[in-house]
């Protein structure tokens, strides 16, 4: 079972520019979470802070009792072996073939025999659909393939925590759907805690158990997916609908004057009509033949126990999603 | 553009504007000190990581071979004219002073103690250091180093330590080569062109030169190799934004190494002259 990631009061600035502040959330063990946010809200910075590549000024990130912000470098290095991080553009080693790239963590951290390494690596290459390309250099393959190779490398050590930085960027919709399904299947198989950073609405709607959103230097919300998907906060509904009207502007946030002007011009009417309850798309299920997602069962317990604190709309959506197959599995 | 309304709405996103944390902006005057501090801390980290297992043998051999292959030929080619220049210059000076018989000793001392380590260091930094810096810099901007760190592999231990050790070892070995070639070049020019006598050349050589001269030469080469490796790695690990930043970093690494070399050389020479008495005194 995956490991819980506890983030407390995290604040990060670059020089005078504050990226986000006081971010507090818990990624429940083994569950899939998605962090949404418009471009440039520091989603990638958030991922890098969780894994300790960037050091926020305030706050803690606790994993197995190790604080990824302030603990000694040696402990952080050890804890990082629990992670698999998929970089936005793969971040493969340009001078190594795909095979060597994916084998790199195994060769560095384990004493496995070369035949054993070959077996594991080919298995992962097969999972991400890159069979036949293992001898190519990263410069010789497409961006989407690099991304999938990056995912294979992240998976090779059987990580407990998987972080994905925009798994969809540079992929066509079909491949994005495959990646979504792949992530859910992986979660069912290895039960790792997963955090996906994205602004892809399809992934956001179908993959996660939990969702959060970063906007305007703050964590807008974090909780079960239904809470965000049914939220009527202007930022969230604008983002999920992909509208121009709302608080999100081309450059981060709009100023008050533009907002008011929009309202006067009657965009506000449009917003409220679009605020009619959105339908919550059912979550993806593991492919046939995969084990039951333990995380889904755990999450069900957890969400039902916190029902009382959730908004009405979210409660209805959750009840609806859990009722069809009473007592059994959701469909 | 819609008409701007007279009043902004009372509550909105603008109210959630963050209170920026009260950080005193670091003074620009202290920037050079900060850079120096980081350079030293990298040097300390590298020295510590040298002893951390597993040692990256393969990477070390590859780097050693690379550094050696790009420096051997230029070093030999540079050291012949350099030895010749010193021989000619010292030769004409000693002739005026009437001390021709000491030409050999003086030019050999100059080559072994000063010219050879400096030539080695300049070549290592210019040929190998720039390559190391560009390599690390482009890995850094392509996030390869981040990826490595995320996998729990320290880029310093995995990449920097083998490179620094390689530059040090090549510097020491190359220093031997340059000393020999430079001395032979000096001998050739003194004996053939200035009509010095071989006997006087060799006699004055052994009259003035002593073993500690060779030791300090090798120590210098070792230290210069270390400096060249560390500075190249430091600039490579901290490029400033994009491919142009890597280019700038390479440039700076060579310039910084050169300046450090001459400074450290002065200090080492001064210390050496203080603690090792000249032969015969």
Automatic annotation (TrEMBL), chain A:
Q: Which ranges carry the ABC transporter domain?
A: 5-241
SUPFAM superfamilies, per the entry: P-loop containing nucleoside triphosphate hydrolases
One Pfam family assigned to this protein is ABC_tran
Q: Name one GO molecular function term.
A: ATP hydrolysis activity
InterPro entries from the UniProt entry: AAA+_ATPase, ABC_transporter-like_ATP-bd, ABC_transporter-like_CS, P-loop_NTPase
The organism's place on the tree of life at top rank: Bacteria
**What SMART domains does the entry give?**
AAA (SM00382)
The UniProt keywords, alphabetically, are:
ATP-binding, Nucleotide-binding, Transport
Q: What is this protein called?
A: Phospholipid/cholesterol/gamma-HCH transport system ATP-binding protein
TrEMBL record, chain B:
Membrane-spanning residues: 64-88, 108-134, 164-189, 214-234, 254-275
Q: Which PANTHER family match?
A: ABC TRANSPORTER PERMEASE PROTEIN-RELATED (PTHR30188), PROTEIN TRIGALACTOSYLDIACYLGLYCEROL 1, CHLOROPLASTIC (PTHR30188:SF4)
GO CC annotations, alphabetized:
ATP-binding cassette (ABC) transporter complex
The UniProt keywords, alphabetically, are: Membrane, Transmembrane, Transmembrane helix
Name of the molecule in the record: Phospholipid/cholesterol/gamma-HCH transport system permease protein
What is the organism field in this record?
A: Streptomyces atratus
GO MF terms, alphabetically ordered: phospholipid transporter activity
* Sequence ranges of Pro residues compositional bias: 1-11
Lineage runs: Bacteria, Bacillati, Actinomycetota, Actinomycetes, Kitasatosporales
Note down the stretches annotated as region Disordered: 1-28
Domain of life of the organism in this record? Bacteria
InterPro entries per record: Permease_MalE
